[in-house]
Amino acid sequence: MTRDVCFCGWRGEMADREPIYAGDGEWGLLCPTCGHLDRLIGWPASARHWTLTEAARRRDRLTEAQDSSLL
Ligand SMILES: [Zn+2]
C-alpha cells in the first residue's frame, strides 16, 4: 500500500485523501487534517491517474455504503 506523510504530520494512504479539482485541468488530493492540497507534481501520469481514481472510488463507495449498506 502506498503510504504518505503530510508535512502536518498526517499519515495514511494517498487514496484516503479527498480528490479536489485544482484548476488548469489538474487534480490534487486534500489532506484531511490541515487541508494542504497536494497536486502530485512530479508524479508519473499513470500513478497520478490511479491515485485520483482510487480516491474518487473510495468516496463513491462510502456514499453507497450509507445508502445500501454494501460494507
Ligand atoms: Zn496535512
Please give a structural write-up.
- The chain has 71 residues and is an alpha+beta fold.
- The chain has one domain.
- The chain is built from one helix and five strands.
- A three-stranded antiparallel β-sheet has the order 3-4-5. A two-stranded antiparallel sheet has the order 1-2.
- The two termini are 20 Å apart.
- The model has no long low-confidence stretch (mean pLDDT 84).
- It binds zinc ion (ZN).
- Zinc ion binds next to loops.
The percentage helix is 25-40%
pLDDT below 50 for ≥5 consecutive residues: which ranges? none
Bound molecules: zinc ion
How many structural domains are formed by the residues?
1
Keywords:
5 strands; 1 helix; 71 residues; alpha+beta; binds zinc ion; 3-stranded antiparallel sheet
Summarize this entry quickly.
This protein is of the alpha+beta class and 71 residues long.
Which helices and strands appear, and what pairs or packs with what?
Blueprint: E1 3-5, E2 11-13, E3 18-23, E4 26-30, E5 37-38, H1 45-68
Antiparallel strand pairs: 1-2, 3-4, 4-5
The structure holds zinc ion.
